[in-house]
Design goal:
It is a single chain. The protein is of the alpha/beta class and about 210 residues long. The protein is about 50% helix and about 15% strand. Strands 2-3-1-4-5-6 form a six-stranded parallel beta sheet, sandwiched between helices.
């Protein structure tokens, strides 16, 4: 892998964790997986039941978890792996919180975010896996996490738009948008190799789009 630090992003059900794990195993990458299960964030299941009541708690908990994890993982020299690959980029905290919080709560949250993450390294390449909502919902239901089964299409659409708005605002990052609607990189090795080849290309700073 030509990049020292790659972050795979996308809405729930896009395949971030699966792809990151596959690449890590095949190319000797140091894997960073987001800690999102209810035992790590006790407000998550409650949020899906009562979003207005638990949105701020769930976002602040994720903020703390992501900061601690990246501080620990990115700050340690690793002689046994060739690069770092993560199944999230920390700016997702801003994307999700903008969707989930009230405006005054978001203003406070974003202040904390900017203070806490000002010194955390950015990935050399961020890969955004794009799937339409129908495919996202299929994957979400297939993996069977109980607390995700009532997610509305509109919520996923708003998150997608939040990612696109964020991406448009970035002027100092390499960002690759991969449309994976027509492939299955989990079941088909050829599709998987297409994805790896697309990621492992020399990209200039800016936004790049590929349909696979």
């Amino acid at each position: 892998m030509r990049y020292n630090y790659v972050a795979i992003e996308g809405t729930m059900g896009a395949g971030k964790t699966t792809l990151s794990t596959m690449i890590s195993n095949d190319l000797n990458g140091k894997l960073i997986l987001e800690e999102f299960e209810p035992d790590k964030n006790p407000f998550l299941a409650k949020f899906y039941e009562e979003p207005d009541k638990y949105a701020f708690q769930v976002e602040m908990t994720f903020l703390a978890l992501r900061f601690q994890q990246l501080k620990d993982k990115l700050g340690v020299l690793d002689l046994f792996h060739d690069f770092i690959i993560s199944d999230y980029y920390v700016a997702k905290s801003l994307i999700f919180s903008r969707e989930n919080l009230q405006p005054d709560e978001y203003d406070l949250f974003s202040r904390f975010f900017n203070i806490i993450f000002s010194n955390i390294p950015k990935p050399e390449l961020m890969v955004y896996l794009y799937l339409d909502v129908e495919h996202l919902q299929y994957n979400i239901h297939k993996r069977g996490r109980e607390y995700e089964q009532k997610i509305d299409d509109s919520y996923l659409e708003h998150l997608q738009q939040g990612y696109f708005d964020f991406i448009k605002q970035q002027s100092d990052m390499r960002i690759l948008i991969l449309d994976t609607n027509n492939i299955d990189f989990v079941a088909n090795k050829k599709d998987y190799y297409k994805v790896v080849e697309a990621i492992d290309q020399p990209y200039d700073v800016g936004i790049h789009r590929l349909v696979l």
